[in-house]
């Protein structure tokens, strides 16, 4: 790897959950709006393009809530059956689901919990559900039932559904109409991206700048400000420049990395 060449302790852009969360202006605003929704015990739709960071943002919001002692469950709905969805929710909320519980029993565990929470003074329980646009019709039906029962005279639940802009249409009008607030996460501006690059390099142990100003401009232009593309392109540029023995990365190295990855500026 290139760690020794650049004086890094680890890969700053290699992807996965190990990457440090960077809170740009868009992330700050989105988290503030999700906090408001949870405080009001309402529901939200989080929209973002592919690779823009909705999963990372949901994970950060979940970690913050758990640190504050607030009951929170987070999961991807992609490929889950109704029982798997309800079992994961009950388990993450520490409701003691049994391996033998069926859909009816699991649903009752959650709603019984809601009845107890609803009359208390604490904050709402939160379900943060990623890939909601990939949920099956039977899971969406369970969600509608939960939203209906949780929106009585004493609301106890906040549901945040995360999806892509194009995929949200697959969720159906009835489910979309049950959500109170729409939160959109946009790609990074160039200043936000520069802040992220500096943040990631510092967290990985860098002691001096690696990308020059022209490289950063090219990196933003060729990635469209999409975090997933930025990570892949920056990581490939670090690898290529290290192989050539470079001390810094310039725009030409970014363009070479882009060509090697076979991207276009409008691709997803």
UniProtKB/TrEMBL annotation:
Cite the source lineage.
Bacteria, Pseudomonadati, Planctomycetota, Planctomycetia, Pirellulales
Q: What is this protein called?
A: ORC1/DEAH AAA+ ATPase domain-containing protein
Q: Which GO terms describe its molecular function?
A: ATP hydrolysis activity
Q: Which PANTHER family match?
A: GENERAL SECRETION PATHWAY PROTEIN A-RELATED (PTHR35894), PHOSPHORIBULOKINASE _ URIDINE KINASE FAMILY (PTHR35894:SF1)
| UniProt domain ORC1/DEAH AAA+ ATPase: residue ranges | 40-167
Q: Which InterPro entries match?
A: AAA_22, ExeA_AAA_ATPase_DNA-bind, P-loop_NTPase
Alphabetical list of Gene3D superfamilies matching this protein: P-loop containing nucleotide triphosphate hydrolases
What's the domain of life for this entry?
Bacteria
